[in-house]
Records
---
Amino acid sequence: MSSQPRLVEVRQNVLKQNDLLARSLRQRFEAAGVFVVSLVSSPGSGKTTLLEKTLTRLIDNGNRVAALVGDLATENDAARLARSQAPVKQIVTGTVCHLDADMVQRSLEGWELKDLDCLFIENVGNLVCPSSYDLGENLRVVLMSVTEGEDKPLKYPTIFNTADVAVITKMDLAEAVEFDLAGAYENIQSVRPGMEVLQLSAKTGDGLNEYLGFLVSRMESRSLVGKVSVG
Amino acid sequence: MHELSIAISIIEGASQEALSRGGAQVHAVHLKLGALSGVVKDALLFSYEVATNGTMLEGSRLVIEDVPVVIYCSECQAERRLKSIQQFCCPVCGALSSDVVRGRELELVAIEIEEVEEIV
Ligand SMILES: Nc1nc2c(ncn2[C@@H]2O[C@H](COP(=O)(O)OP(=O)(O)OP(=O)(O)O)[C@@H](O)[C@H]2O)c(=O)[nH]1
Ligand SMILES: [Mg+2]
Ligand SMILES: [Zn+2]
């Protein structure tokens, strides 16, 4: 005699483990007074280049910063970032196309969080998978470079929707590739009305001050007043 | 592609639930999938089939309920379903809104199980 199949309610978030871990990380960051910024973009949009400039500038102004960087296979980005003199750790993800909260937690081992003002996390270059994973960050920055075209937001609405600010990079190349800046703004507003948009060139430094100013204003609005300065 | 790791999380969650009910056999797993979850349905279905192989969920179906994006429109003071996830504006009055009410779900809703009979 066999019983009938029956429906049993479960109701749980599939990414519950990640979300719980991210929440506990966020609490740890807050308790330690460290502001955490993550960077997401397609491969090669300029995350590492911008991050190297950011770290260098923040260190020059007396801030204590560090970075974690995700990469599928190499340690190149970590080596580049280490030139800024900031503590840097590479997270080699192997076949995994995104960082998750567990990878962040494990790579923080051995670091004293309260000795930091700001921690940056460079995600694996990918506009799809990182959107599902909360890393415990305070601010998620999505980068798009002018060479990728202005329709990226329409193709990847989810990542733009989970990010807090969009940064258009490689502006020094905008003219050469006939980048439609107004169209890019329009597309970003279409998938995320009200999103703040910044533009810069990490190569020439144009727009870098505005970007750093934005970061600092966000840190300060998290009541970390006076901790971080850009000089 | 992160659908394989998502599929593995689903299988873990569903297996745990089934085991806690006395090692029941699982016929189906019901999932809510938001249009803003970042997960591709077809890739997930494919990954599920691959990942259930050799587990207690082998042969079970993954039943996916698509959840469209619903925003709150402050002009209409009402919840509205988006026409397209490329356009976050109210389909009735056209006002812009980033206030997502539904559509991010990636939720294990239920499992269909059959109790394994005790052999005396
Ligand atoms: N012209 C110009 N090139 C840039 C700029 N920023 C970055 N690049 C170049 O773009 C290429 C990729 O830059 P990365 O900083 O490595 O990009 P990424 O996003 O870290 O790449 P992945 O980590 O592999 O996803 C490099 O050759 C950089 O020199 C810029 O502002 N202007
Ligand atoms: Mg990089
Ligand atoms: Zn409306």
Note: Chain A touches chain B through 37 residues (CB under 8 Å).
---
Amino acid sequence: MIDYVIANENVILAALSQHIMLALVPIVLGALIALPIGFLAVRYGWLYHPLLNVSGLLYSIPSLALFLIIPGIIGTKILSPINIIVALTVYTVALLVRVVADGLRSVDGIVTQAASAMGYRRIRRFFEVELPIALPVMLAGLRVATVANISLVSVGALIGVGGLGALFTRGLQLRYLDPIIVGIVLSVLLAVLCDLVIVLVQRRLTPWTRVKGRS
Amino acid sequence: MITFDGVSKVFPDGTVAVDDLHLELPTGKITVFVGPSGCGKTTSLRMINRMVEPTSGEILIDGVPVTTQDEALLRRGIGYVIQHAGLFPHRTIVENIGTVQRLTGVGRKAARATAIDLLRRVGLSESLADKYPVQLSGGQQQRVGVARALAADPPVMLMDEPFSAVDPIVREGLQAEFLRLQAELGKTIAFVTHDIDEAIKLGDMVAVFREGGHLAQFGSPQELLEKPANDFVADFVGRDRGFRSLSFDSADELVIDSVASVSTGGEILVLDDAGRPVGWAGPGLGDTSAPIPHGGTFTRGDSLRLVTDLAISSPVGIAVQVDVDGAAVGVIRHTSLVRQLDERRRRRAEPTA
Ligand SMILES: Nc1ncnc2c1ncn2[C@@H]1O[C@H](COP(=O)(O)OP(=O)(O)OP(=O)(O)O)[C@@H](O)[C@H]1O
Ligand SMILES: [Mg+2]
């Protein structure tokens, strides 16, 4: 095992960095896209259910199918990493729209009204009142999306671009266990690490959620 | 001064919340909007800071129509306090209090200093400064809500049932604190409540609303109690309004009998060495060495209501007046009191020239 790692250090590192890129770029893009959509779903109540239905539908498309359909839709080469990034961004958006909308809906109307009555303008109110209060719900959703993306990237190996997933396909082809074990361990470690980072960020950004209320 | 000039509000669903309201809220005074649920009090209040826009008519603050002013800037100059306080859960107590100051560009340090000062003024400990709202009791949160509204020192304050969500004892404390603050600050305040007792206690002026957004009467608490404009107001003000209206009149004009006069009825007012009343003794009451408690005394400046209450609740039907040192100076029997109240009523009923 150690021998395998030492001998293939470059291959493993390349797979790992590709895995990180393929998993995290869609998270950032997805969050940026989901934020305004979730906001609209709350701002215009009639949009909430249609948007949630559509995102539920998108989320239920099998990932391998999505990886194969996307080149047909956006005209990329079948082996392009962009396909994976686009597909995972779609999943992330589908997951986070609901989370963003539910987070924003969890903000007490009395509080937003009070903010307006004190003289907040609309946009500043969103960033200084609604968004921070919705943050705990949103970050919980982000954890789910991140872990899901990290595991989904491996599926891409079946169409030739899959980060650590490439180690699984290689192990299968060579009937050799070491790359598979290394792939699994790194993938799990990566997921745990990313999750931990988000938890730490959450602790730092939302200190009010950790104080003990009196009742 | 806040002027409602023929203000109406009809909501898109056709609900008439406020109907042709004409009203002037005097500068530096508390004007209370009171009335049953759904009669348009909140809507009227929220039209002052443009949270709701009138369908017709105009609201002016010191002669300037509110609609000519930028919404956000207008609101930063008007304090706003609501039921349950509506504090920002993600901000500490000092950050909550400093909200408007931060919006108007005051630095963090200066806003904090003001906030800590205000915390003390509303009767809270400085140790709460860096806590979050969930860590405070309802009464404490409500005080923070008041402090937050005061922080930018706005000349006008809007308060929508600010004390209704706390228990009666806490509410009394908040009301007393509020009156003490107002005596110091002299803000122009519009205060909404559906509790007529609170209206009478806090209001310099009271606007009684009735269903459909009509103004039923506008006047001082005393006017409301003594001269209700119609049956609706009389009914709303309540059955014991006669008794309550006594709290606006001083007892100083009552004819008081001498302390010695009590012996004619057989009762003995037991005094200590300094002449302070200790209690009652006499046939059926107790020995002079173990008198029964007198239950309270009154002094110059107390209200007719207090004297009446003392006379009625006294074991012998006599209220005792004391001087500033607590020494008994006179008594009044409830029979005499009732006669004098009756004369007072007759005098009032006569048209004043
Ligand atoms: N946004 C709205 N859309 C439609 N109708 C409304 C709206 N806001 C208030 N109303 C209606 O307008 C009327 C007056 O409401 P308002 O809130 O001013 O009453 P209120 O006197 O404050 O009552 P309460 O004592 O219950 O708070 C009510 O019939 C209410 O249902
Ligand atoms: Mg109301």
Note: Residues 76 and 82 of chain A are 8 Å apart (CA to CA).
